[in-house]
Amino acid sequence: MGRLDAVRAARRGGVYLLGALLSAVGTVLALPLLCVPRLARWWAAWHRDRARRLLDPASGARPTLRAAWADAATGRTAGALLWLPVHAVTGVAFGLPALLCVGNIVVALIATPLWWAFPFVERPRLFIDVPVTGWATALTLGPLQIGLLAALAFVAFPPVARAHARICVAVLARRAGEELAERVAVLTRTRADVLDAHGAELRRIERDLHDGTQARLVAIAMRLAVARQAFAESPRDEQFVEGLLRDAHEGTEEAMAELREVIRSVYPPILADRGLDGALTAVVTRCGVPTRLEIGEFERVPAAVEAVVYFAVAEALTNVAKHSGAAAARVRVGRAADRLSVVVTDDGAGGADERRGTGLAGIRRRVLALDGAVDVDSPAGGPTTVTVELPCGW
């Protein structure tokens, strides 16, 4: 780990521990309210997601109370209720030292240049009980206290925060039977959605072929029949036959173009020609909002996964261009073990809602069909983050 990464880890650990202390105090104050099963599961789910995010920063979008509330529809009530007293104790035990460390750094930062501004009887104190009465004390003990406490935070915050996160994950871990029951419920629900989506897709393809391509092929056949009859009855009427053949030729090209569009809606040919990275590059290039594409290293993934990723990114960027008012967007694609993750973010106005027909529901249906997961984080005022995870280790 480089020095910059270590500094970031210390900062994340400090923020996590201070947040744990604050939420532990809130847990104690709101304990009667949090004993309601749904609220207990919601509170526990947010802490579990927060702990997992600390242990694995690349696991996905940042935890939100809104996502935790949706997750609280299922889960272990007993584990959530057990977590409340555990968190009340561990949050204070782990977070209070972090608060004292950060607080004394702040005291030293204020006392060193501004000790003289305090009343004589209320001079700031360094190293717990040493009053700052002159510049010599301020310029020696102040930087010393800042350096020692900063070094302590640099060394101690990451492992202490990870220890608390592991306790949280261990207490809130689902049992095998509960995970299986929840998985069955999710698969039952998504199977119905997939069947509906599959039926709708078949009807769309049938409608496109019937109303478009089939109509053009019938017209071509009629023109060719008329041309054949005209040629048989009047071989010298070349101009009339030529016009019919020209119309039939143009109709054939139009029918082929429509067929290509139908095929493209099932599996985009660009994926076969240029691969997933090339296809996504083309999508990003066509987006009306400046978009940065970041593609990590990943092996060949199944064609079905490629198609879902392509359509999900295309739909998400269409939403960005049409609805967000964003000035910039970013698409990140990466693989961890057997999971392919796609994160689309923009700096727009936020407030994306699947119920308003912005295409997010379509993305979710495609992803759930492959046993994947979708998370949409779009608070009012932005930014918006759409995270898609798909299994690719088949």
TrEMBL record:
CDD domains: HATPase_UhpB-NarQ-NarX-like. It catalyses: ATP + protein L-histidine = ADP + protein N-phospho-L-histidine. InterPro entries: HATPase_C_sf, HATPase_dom, Sensor_HK_TwoCompSys, Sig_transdc_His_kin_sub3_dim/P. The chain crosses the membrane at residues 15-40, 92-115, 135-157. Keywords: ATP-binding, Kinase, Membrane, Nucleotide-binding, Phosphoprotein, Transferase, Transmembrane, Transmembrane helix, Two-component regulatory system. Residues 304-394 form the Histidine kinase/HSP90-like ATPase domain. The keyword Iron does not apply. GO terms for molecular function: kinase activity. Gene3D superfamilies: 1.20.5.1930, Histidine kinase-like ATPase, C-terminal domain. It comes from the Bacteria. Its EC number is 2.7.13.3. SUPFAM superfamilies: ATPase domain of HSP90 chaperone/DNA topoisomerase II/histidine kinase. Pfam families: HATPase_c, HisKA_3. This is histidine kinase.
